[in-house]
Amino acid sequence: MPDKVEIKNKETVTSSCKILMSATAFKTSTKVGMTFGGKRRTNEKLLKFIDTKLTYINNIQTKKPDASLGPDAMLVLAELYYALDRWLVLAGRKDSSVNTRRSKGVNGLFAQVVKLLSFQLEMPMNRLPNWLGEHFTVGMTDHGYEVDYKNRSALYYKEQDREVYRLKITNGVVYQKKWWDPKNKDTWVKMNSEFTQSTGSAGTISNKHSGYVLSIVGDFYSGPHKSGTTYKKTGQYHSSYMGGKPVLCAGEIEVVDGKIKHLNTGSGHYGPAKGYLLNVINALTVCGVAETSYMVDFHGSKSSVSAAKMRKKIETEEVKVGGDDVSHLKSAEAASRLNGVKAGLLARIKKLRGELDVIAHFNTSDHVEGFKRRRAICKICGKNNLDNKMQQDRYKNRNVQEREFKLQALEKQVAFIK
């Protein structure tokens, strides 16, 4: 499942909520006295986006209080959920784009959105992150599972490793860290995607572009894109950033001197439908990137249009997000392959557990009683000739800790597949 979306104020999310606070009340709750460093409320584009989505829900609920929300409204409510969660993530980082003194007001609305979603879906609140992940993120394709799980050629970044590839977008300008310079890898510079081509992406990514992913908490990542060697885990793919977990979108992006020129959904690992471009457009808009300033297209399209036109196209279609048949959650073929992967993992888990049980079994009364004569087979551990002390020592000295670590890693993979 996707990166877990944590409910920030669990202590207050205890009762149902049928109607959200008004946009006016939210503005009042997020006003602060004196501001410093240009963090006025009118300068926070993410708050402006939240205001717009909240007003949309308010208008519906004013006409029909307590009514069930339709698909369009549920999409907006999900966008509101992710926007509020994004604000709280930035506040946790003490990002300069938000004023952390507004946290109480944002937390209050977030709690209400969580309650309203729970009420509308008639499900426990702790299941909401999974439901949102299933309907508003895109998982890997058959190709992605083939490369990552069967061939095991993908390198998955640890959290500290992927941080160097996280992008920062300030006032519409995209910055990246100098990941190619070990001595200055934490230095921010304006992004140029064509440079990434020279580091290994040529031939695997469109000319002058680099690969990008948009994580479930709204972070953009971009870096070199390289094919890997089977069983060596050396490939740098779209799946590398988030460890194969679902994302809000993935594709290719062209950036010149910090300005975005073009982006698409070109990703063999994720293959998102065009509806997922709405997630990208929203994320860039709240970062100050004008929707008329760059072009977008989806995989298989013959021409590009401005992000503004693509937004209108997506928002007027009956199926917007979560209706594609590319995500592994919607693909029967991928599900079949995934079941095979899961079966293999479970077999390895069973073998490791058996080995650990055998090692723990030695030098116990059960084992002593398990055989009566030399070369007999112990009925418990299934091993013979174990009255030989040298052989017993060999089994006892096998690395238990290493097996336990492997077992934990495999169990996590199985939990992810569930």
Features:
418 residues; alpha+beta; 3 domains; three-stranded antiparallel beta sheet; globular
Structure explained in plain terms:
With 418 residues, the chain is an alpha+beta fold. It has three domains: 23-136; 142-324, no CATH class; 333-417. It contains 14 helices and nine strands. It has helices at 23-29, 45-63, 71-92, 103-121, 128-136, 142-150, 159-162, 193-201, 277-285, 307-315, 332-361, 365-368, 389-396, 400-417, and strands at 168-170, 173-177, 188-190, 210-214, 220-223, 249-256, 259-264, 295-297, 305-306. A six-stranded mixed β-sheet has the order 5-4-6-7-8-9. The chain has a three-stranded antiparallel β-sheet with strand order 1-2-3, with no helix packed on it. A hairpin with a 5-residue loop joins strand 4 and strand 5 (220-223). The model is unreliable at 1-14 and 320-337 (pLDDT under 50).
Helix-strand blueprint:
Blueprint lengths: L22 H7 L15 H19 L7 H22 L10 H19 L6 H9 L5 H9 L8 H4 L5 E3 L2 E5 L10 E3 L2 H9 L8 E5 L5 E4 L25 E8 L2 E6 L12 H9 L9 E3 L7 E2 H9 L16 H30 L3 H4 L20 H8 L3 H18 L1
Parallel strand pairs: 7-8
Antiparallel strand pairs: 1-2, 2-3, 4-5, 4-6, 6-7, 8-9
Give me a quick take on this structure.
With 418 residues, this protein is of the alpha+beta class. It folds into three domains: 23-136; 142-324, no CATH class; 333-417.
Number of helices in the DSSP assignment: 14
Number of domains: 3
Strand content: 5-15%
Low-confidence stretches: 1-14, 320-337
Average pLDDT across residues? 82
- Kindly report how far apart the N and C termini lie: 8 Å
Q: Considering DSSP H and I runs of 4 or more, what fraction of the residues is helical? A: 40-55%
Main beta sheet: 6 strands, mixed
